[in-house]
Automatic annotation (TrEMBL):
InterPro entries: HAD-like_sf (IPR036412), HAD-SF_hydro_IA (IPR006439), HAD_sf (IPR023214), PGP-like_dom2 (IPR023198). The keyword Hydrolase applies. Keywords: Hydrolase. GO terms for molecular function: hydrolase activity. The keyword Hydrolase applies. Pfam families: Hydrolase. This is HAD family phosphatase. NCBIfam families: HAD-SF-IA-v3.
């Protein structure tokens, strides 16, 4: 079904911190891994990685805590902890599930665009359903590179410039803007700076399908 002209061509969703609050799982795992290496891990360290490509984050963690683990091993260790926690409980962000449901009922295509790997995102995909899914292990360049959002638009058969992306981090917002999307930023763990084609809000709770259509036209 083609969406009416007053609606966005598609809505592209970040996952971690935007749809579901996984940041405590990621950050808790980072602190635990650092403790196992008798290394100091700070809030600044944790927040600097929010929204990042997991491979790049693992390189940073390895260097920061002085680990003998390879970056791939660090990614797998943290990813498995988050995947288990996410399958046990989904801490949905306010308004996210309701907006996803409203968009589906309006016939607007939706994609999940996350730097989490496929097996981590699986529970969310199973519960919510998306027309396309782009995960961190399916792209060559992660956020803030535009590739993830360009790939999502391609899979949906639309132009990224006609899409709205919903993000919670500066890294993700930069990725979506670089792809040409209008970004709705809902800061959670970190602040997101203002930028062209970017709307910053405090919650998704009162955001409507029509609101997204107006933003896509800006």
């Amino acid at each position: 079904m083609n969406a009416p002209s007053h609606l966005p061509a598609a809505v592209l969703w970040d996952m971690d911190g935007t749809i579901v609050d996984t940041e405590p799982l990621w950050i808790g795992g980072e602190y635990e891994l650092a403790a196992q290496h008798d290394a100091v891990w700070t809030e600044e360290d944790a927040l600097s990685l929010v929204g990042s490509d997991l491979r790049e984050a693992a390189v940073y963690i390895k260097r920061r805590i002085g680990s003998d683990m390879e970056p791939e091993e660090i990614t797998a260790w943290l990813g498995n902890k988050v995947a288990v926690g996410l399958r046990e409980k989904q801490d949905w962000r306010p308004g996210a599930v309701e907006l996803i449901t409203a968009l589906r009922e309006a016939g607007v295509p939706q994609a999940l665009v996350t730097m989490s790997y496929d097996y981590i995102a699986e529970p969310v995909v199973e519960i919510l359903g998306f027309d396309a899914v782009v995960t961190g292990d399916a792209v060559t360049h992660g956020k803030p590179h535009p590739e993830p959002y360009l790939r999502a638009a391609e899979l949906l058969g639309v132009q990224a410039a006609d899409c709205v992306a919903i993000e919670d981090s500066r890294t993700g917002a930069a990725s979506a803007n670089a792809a040409g999307c209008h970004v709705v930023a809902v800061p959670h763990a970190v602040n997101v700076p203002e930028a062209p084609r970017r709307t910053i809000i405090t919650s998704l709770t009162h955001l409507t399908v029509e609101d997204l259509g107006r933003l896509a036209a800006l």
